[in-house]
User: Which sequence fits this backbone?
């Protein structure tokens, strides 16, 4: 989406192609992005593809968001929600250079506050690291995720309950998600890039 | 009596009227099914009125109020204009007729209460309203002729930038002060 610019100092690789001219690829670091770690960890489908509308909860400074923006391309849109003002400022700056990112500095716990800014989306990705994150995602999906739409959630076991073993926390979260109309299909842990993290993907109301 | 639905978008306020409210009113599953396809959905709900924001500042002022559950003069005017019939009936102070006045579905309870107090309209905010709004959100650009998907995206983009910039300025200032 934004040639010749690195968002967070990542490497860029330019390729000359006879048919389409110059193509630029950006290196996606799995240590910095849980979504990249999930892809390398062997998840089959992240559902984010060219033309997708994506609701991204917990956008932080917009590093992974910038990669999502490259994936969905000019036909798609990334609604990036981040509550903390400092990363929010970086996010707004990333979004200035990429017109398919819609930056929303607001609390993902209150999806109604940004209901004016969001259309129905194809995919929800969440990396909010809050104890009640399943509920937050469920809330957002109720208002904004298409029936038959998809979700990807990054779960950090320590943030939910640090006293239980990670795999029990993951299993509990999956149960909570199922109770809210999500049908989880895949789960991978993010070893060796992150400790006690899992990404769960699946489909909503279908 | 007629049931209306208020939809707040980045480009303006939309008021939708329910056509077959009685038929599908019974079960939530029915409503869920009917919002999936445009040709089914457009038989249930039709656009009554649409009020675009006049400028970027106007839009920002409105979203700031909406997020706090407050009503702006623009929204008040819009609702008064389009739900006028109900107001007249109420001025006669007849309780029976009051129940027959127009009902308005609002997704945000706080805003709903505000509207109820100020305009004296029956306001509903339940799961059915949520489901219907999912449908409206999905097919919004199909209801308004001059509004394409790109226009929706552009207005969202513009409004989100101005809204987020405000938030960041507002809060970062405070954080910066603490560090100093």
Assistant:
């Amino acid at each position: 989406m934004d040639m010749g610019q690195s968002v967070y100092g990542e490497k860029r690789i330019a390729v000359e192609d006879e048919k389409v001219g110059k193509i630029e690829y950006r290196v996606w670091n799995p240590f910095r992005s849980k979504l990249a770690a999930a892809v390398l960890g062997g998840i089959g489908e992240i559902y984010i593809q060219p033309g997708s509308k994506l609701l991204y909860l917990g956008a932080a400074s917009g590093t992974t968001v910038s990669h999502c923006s490259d994936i969905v391309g000019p036909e798609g849109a990334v609604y990036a929600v981040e509550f903390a003002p400092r990363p929010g400022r970086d996010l707004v700056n990333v979004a200035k250079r990429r017109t398919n990112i819609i930056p929303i500095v607001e609390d993902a716990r209150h999806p109604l506050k940004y209901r004016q800014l969001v259309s129905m989306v194809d995919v929800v990705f969440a990396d909010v690291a809050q104890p009640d994150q399943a509920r937050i995602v469920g809330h957002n999906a109720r208002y904004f995720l298409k029936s038959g739409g998809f979700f990807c959630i990054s779960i950090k076991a320590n943030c939910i309950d640090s006293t239980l073993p990670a795999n029990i926390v993951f299993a509990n979260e999956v149960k909570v998600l199922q109770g809210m109309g999500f049908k989880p299909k895949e789960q991978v842990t993010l070893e060796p890039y992150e400790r006690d993290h899992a990404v769960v993907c699946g489909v909503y109301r279908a | 009596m007629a049931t209306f639905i208020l939809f707040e978008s980045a480009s303006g306020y939309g008021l939708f009227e329910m056509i077959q409210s009685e038929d599908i009113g019974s079960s939530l599953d029915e409503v869920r099914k009917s919002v999936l396809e445009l040709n089914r959905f457009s038989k249930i709900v039709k656009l009554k009125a649409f009020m675009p924001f006049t400028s970027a500042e106007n839009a920002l002022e409105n979203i700031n109020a909406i997020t706090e559950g407050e009503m702006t003069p623009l929204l008040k005017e819009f609702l008064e204009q389009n739900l006028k019939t109900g107001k007249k009936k109420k001025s006669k102070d007849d309780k029976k007729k009051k129940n027959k006045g127009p009902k308005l579905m609002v997704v945000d309870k706080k805003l709903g209460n505000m509207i109820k107090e100020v305009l004296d309209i029956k306001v509903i905010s339940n799961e059915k309203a949520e489901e219907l709004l999912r449908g409206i959100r999905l097919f919004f650009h199909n209801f308004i002729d001059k509004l394409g998907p790109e226009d929706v995206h552009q207005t969202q983009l513009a409004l989100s930038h101005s809204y987020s910039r405000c938030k960041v300025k507002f809060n970062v200032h405070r954080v910066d002060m603490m560090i100093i």
Q: What stands out?
A: DSSP finds ten helices and five strands in chain B.
